[in-house]
């Protein structure tokens, strides 16, 4: 029951309590996140998001009592957020690394008889992609459609799904051009 006053303060939205709790663990958490491989800006965002979730859980009644310390609860939320960010980073490709592929796709004329060696490699790799990847890459780079437009045309449920799929396709295309 000693945690009950903390829950009540969280529910009340007491600004002074919020500021105190926020600053209490901030530096420790950022250090922890950096050790996990999260960049400093993302670490701050994760910490802020964790506090928002904490207060939303308290305000909605989802958080009725604490079975751990407030610090442990916050770090638990934040740790889940860290893993989300790290998982997302593993599934995305830095498109700056793919600039040569984007440039070749944009200027690739499949009807042209004389192709540069890079265009030939790209053409062969592109042919090895699945239809879904070919469509997304063509729609985005050749037809100039936005992610939102591709979402509609290809019947995706969210823009994030299209972005993730395009990223995976570009990563696959990059791997195929290396081979």
- In the CATH scheme, what's the topology name of the largest domain? Rna Polymerase Sigma Factor, Chain: A
**Whole-number mean pLDDT:** 79
Strand content: under 5%
Alpha-beta classification: mainly alpha
Low-confidence segments, ≥5 residues, pLDDT <50? none
The CATH homologous superfamily of the largest domain is called RNA polymerase sigma factor, region 2, helix turn helix motif
Helix/strand order, N-terminal first: HHHHHHHHH
Total domain count? 2
Specify the overall morphology.
elongated
Report the C-alpha radius of gyration, rounded: 23 Å
Under the CATH scheme, the architecture of the largest domain is Orthogonal Bundle
User: Alpha-carbon distance between the termini?
Assistant: 63 Å
Biggest pleated-sheet summary? none
CATH class of the largest domain: Mainly Alpha
GO molecular function: sigma factor activity
GO biological process, one term: DNA-templated transcription initiation
Family: Belongs to the sigma-70 factor family. ECF subfamily.
Keywords: Sigma factor, Transcription, Transcription regulation
How would you summarize this macromolecular structure in one to three sentences?
The chain is mainly alpha-helical. It has nine helices and no strands. The chain has two domains: 4-91, RNA polymerase sigma factor, region 2, helix turn helix motif (Rna Polymerase Sigma Factor, Chain: A, Orthogonal Bundle), CATH 1.10.1740.10; 95-178, Arc Repressor Mutant, subunit A (Orthogonal Bundle), CATH 1.10.10.
């Amino acid at each position: 029951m000693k945690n009950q006053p903390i829950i009540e303060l969280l529910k009340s939205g007491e600004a002074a309590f919020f500021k105190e709790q926020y600053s209490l663990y901030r530096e420790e958490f950022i250090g922890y996140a950096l050790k996990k491989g999260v960049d400093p800006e993302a670490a701050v965002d994760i910490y802020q998001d964790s506090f928002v979730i904490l207060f939303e859980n308290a305000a909605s009644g989802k958080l009725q009592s604490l079975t751990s310390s407030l610090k442990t609860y916050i770090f638990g939320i934040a740790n889940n957020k860290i893993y989300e960010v790290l998982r997302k980073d593993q599934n995305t490709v830095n498109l700056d690394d793919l600039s040569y592929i984007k440039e070749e796709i944009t200027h690739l004329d499949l009807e042209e008889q004389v192709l540069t060696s890079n265009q030939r490699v790209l053409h062969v790799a592109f042919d090895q992609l699945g239809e879904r990847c070919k469509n997304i890459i063509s729609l985005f780079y050749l037809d100039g459609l936005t992610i939102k437009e591709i979402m509609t045309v290809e019947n995706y449920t969210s823009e994030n799904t299209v972005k993730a799929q395009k990223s995976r396709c570009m990563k696959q295309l990059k791997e195929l051009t290396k081979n």
